[in-house]
Give the backbone structure.
Amino acid sequence: MKIIRRPEVMVAWSENLRRQGVTIGFVPTMGALHEGHRSLIRAGRRRSDALVVSVFVNPTQFGPTEDFARYPRVLDRDHALCRTEGVDVCFEPTVEAMYPKGYQTVVMVSEITRRWEGERRPHHFQGVATVVTKLFRIVQPHFAVFGQKDYQQVLLVRRLVQDLNLGVKIIICPTVREPDGLAMSSRNIYLSEQERTIAPLLYKSLKAGSEAIRKGVIEAALVQSTMAAVLKQEPRFTIEYLAVCDPLTLEPLTLVTSKAILLGAVRLGSVRLIDNLIVSPARNQRAKRLSSA
Ligand code: PAF
């Protein structure tokens, strides 16, 4: 596996392969790779001739009180995982190479970032949109793979690619979970032993909401209170949001009569957890909707 640190070297490598008709796949990451990343890398490997993984802890997507400084940086372990999975290039630029002195350009995607994570983490999505645009320009992939775990990020990236004609196909992989349901995340290592035992309640609350919908509940408020009831069993959780939304626009729904997404964000001690589930209403609710259309 080749390790490339300089953006201009990465550009030259990709341009050369593209000229030869090689299909380049790309998995952007911030490192501290886990089984969730492994599934993205495998999805990329299956579809590409050459696969690039980037490892870059992007400072511009962290707020001033967030965990940029303590974000886990374990390059040797990341290299080992990439090697095992047959990655061709690990692109790991420095902050100075990505944002040199005098840098002043940002990319902003408006509507889709207005709510939820965008509301709680000002500037986060501007940082993500900017770095993803830069990484796409540098790596020049034919396709890129993202995880459903960061659902709002996935919608942002799709919008960005369409709006800026970036010509990169976006592939979404399902969230990979621990056996007890907790969504895998590089930040799970911040959880204390005790917090780790209750963290799966977030997924359980989404499952409860999804069950309610499957059983025929269509009032979003009722679904929301079903999800909240699960989390309220454990006073150590602070709920940031639990929402029932349109899966394309992320606008909150009043009634769930077609596919929806359940979004959840909580704080547990110093750790913030997010998760989501896509749900379809009970068959008879869909039928009712069709007959009244
Ligand atoms: O999902 C992530 O790890 C990051 O937001 C990304 C897409 C690598 C951009 O820094």
